[in-house]
Amino acid sequence: MKPKYIKYDLAFGKKFEKYKSKLTDNDRQKLKKRLEIFVEDIFDKRLKTHKLKGELKDYYAFWINYSDRMVFKILEDEGVYFIEVGDHDVCY
User: Fold this and answer.
1) Does a structural domain hold residue 92?
2) Rounded to an integer, what distance in angstroms lies between the CA atom of residue 41 and that of residue 31?
3) What pTM was estimated for this model as a whole?
4) Would you state the pLDDT for residue 89?
5) Structural domain span for residue 29
6) For 28-79, how does the pLDDT look when each residue is reduced to its tens digit (9 = 90+)?
């Protein structure tokens, strides 16, 4: 599924910029590639997109790398809303 659009709030934008600032150049390139894949198909197998459970049962996550992921919600009009980025501790 290709998202019609991607939204996020100011708080997520700040977290995302802080997250990116801690990455190496190589990891930043990997993140860029992951986001390019996401924009084309949010369920691309390379992203390992999965539905979350428990309190986050209405959300999905995809892997940025082995330890980090991005959490998002698919909106009714097929848009995507990013809510969190980071390791599993941050995302729960």
Assistant:
1) no
2) 15
3) 0.91
4) 72
5) 6-87
6) 999 999 999 999 999 999 999 999 999 899 999 999 988 899 999 999 999 9
Answer positive or negative: Cα dihedral of 82, 23, 92, 16: negative
- Ramachandran quadrant class, 48 (left: phi over 0; alpha: psi -120 to 50; beta: rest): left
DSSP string, 47-85: GT-EE--GGGTT-EEEESSSSEEEEEEE-TTS-EEEEEE
Average of per-residue pLDDT across 7-35: 95
Number of domains in the chain: 1
CATH number of 82's domain: 3.30.2310.20
Beta-ladder partners of 85: 70
| 26's tokens | 């190589």
Mean pLDDT of 12-30: 95
In a domain, 1, yes or no: no
Give the separation between CA 49 and CA 51, rounded to whole angstroms: 7
